[in-house]
Design a protein that fits this description.
alpha+beta, DNA-binding transcription factor activity, Jelly Rolls, 13 helices, Arc Repressor Mutant, subunit A, transcription regulation, six-stranded antiparallel sheet, 49% helix, Helix-turn-helix domain-containing protein
């Protein structure tokens, strides 16, 4: 059945809106079905990316450790963590990149996600029969059948993404499950939501700290401890992430994108974008759209 999975990916890419229920909502950035995935550069994301090895061998490097990749291995790249996939002979790799819509996700799930970001499992071997892999394969088979109903696909996608919490995270005790978020967790959640909703503003650390009624030093420490990066790095990454999305998905002029994502000048925007993506914004838009039309945007920008 894997012969039709590349075509199924194109159908799944059409789900660019929020997918969720009252407890948890997701935003999927891209899907990947790459029959011969080789080395990619050392990089990091501001979102989760889960991969599954259908065939082939390689290694996954993260935090100074290397994890062997073989058929049946599933692994998770967490937000803010530098990593690299290596394979000389190429691997048949499935992957999906996603994040939660925090304003529409309950506190229990937010707490589990924060735990997953800090100390979740990285790689799981021989998981061909795990719920996540079975759901993933069923989803691709459904999408490639030509008979899939959009609502059914959306439900299957949601079930797959939720299953990753159990696969890579730790199950909470019943007592812990009903505990409210602690103050630090609430501060991080509100800060992240504020940043994403106000990218066009200056977003100075002290201003956000005052908004949250905490000190700037405390807020800075919360970002380092919870997200694995400084406040400045997080804001910059979010600006560039949103700019990259707007470049490919909209016809907005570069100056308007720079303004909407908080870059004070087009020159500063261009320089920062080049440093992050290795090419100027205009070239990124041109290449991204051409690659997206060929169904390969996620591999090009992963």
């Amino acid at each position: 059945m894997t012969d039709g999975w590349v075509g199924a990916k194109r159908l799944l890419d059409a789900f660019d809106a929020e997918i969720g229920n009252p407890d948890i909502a997701f935003l999927v950035h891209y899907w990947g079905v790459t029959p011969a995935h080789r080395d990619n550069p050392v990089h990091r994301h501001s979102f989760f990316e889960v991969c599954y090895v259908v065939d082939g061998e390689g290694t996954y490097a993260e935090g100074g450790l290397e994890y062997p990749l073989r058929p049946g291995t599933m692994f998770c790249s967490r937000p803010g963590v530098q990593h690299q996939i290596r394979s000389r002979g190429g691997m048949y790799l499935l992957y999906v990149a996603f994040e939660t819509v925090e304003a529409k996700t309950g506190p229990v799930v937010c707490r589990r996600l924060e735990g997953l970001k800090r100390s979740g499992r990285v790689a799981i071997a021989e998981c061909q029969g795990s719920p996540s892999v079975l759901l993933w394969r069923a989803l691709l088979d459904m999408a490639s059948s030509g008979k899939a109903v959009r609502e059914a696909l959306a439900s299957a996608i949601h079930a797959l993404l939720v299953s990753f919490l159990s696969e890579f995270g730790e199950e909470e005790s019943e007592e812990r499950r009903h505990m409210p978020l602690n103050p630090n967790e609430r501060h991080v959640k509100r800060a992240v939501l504020y940043i994403r909703n106000n990218l066009s503003a200056r977003l100075r650390l002290r201003d956000l700290a005052e908004y949250l009624h905490i000190s700037g030093r405390h807020l800075s420490r919360l970002f380092s401890d919870s997200l694995g990066m400084s406040y400045t790095e997080y804001v910059r990454n979010e600006r560039l992430r949103q700019a990259a999305e707007l470049l490919v998905s909209s016809d907005m002029p570069l100056k308007e994108i720079a303004r909407e994502t908080g870059f004070q000048t087009i020159h500063y925007f261009t320089r920062a974008f080049c440093e992050c993506k290795g090419m100027p914004p205009g070239k990124y838009r041109e290449t991204g759209r051409a690659t997206q039309n060929d169904g390969g945007l996620e591999a090009w920008d992963s």
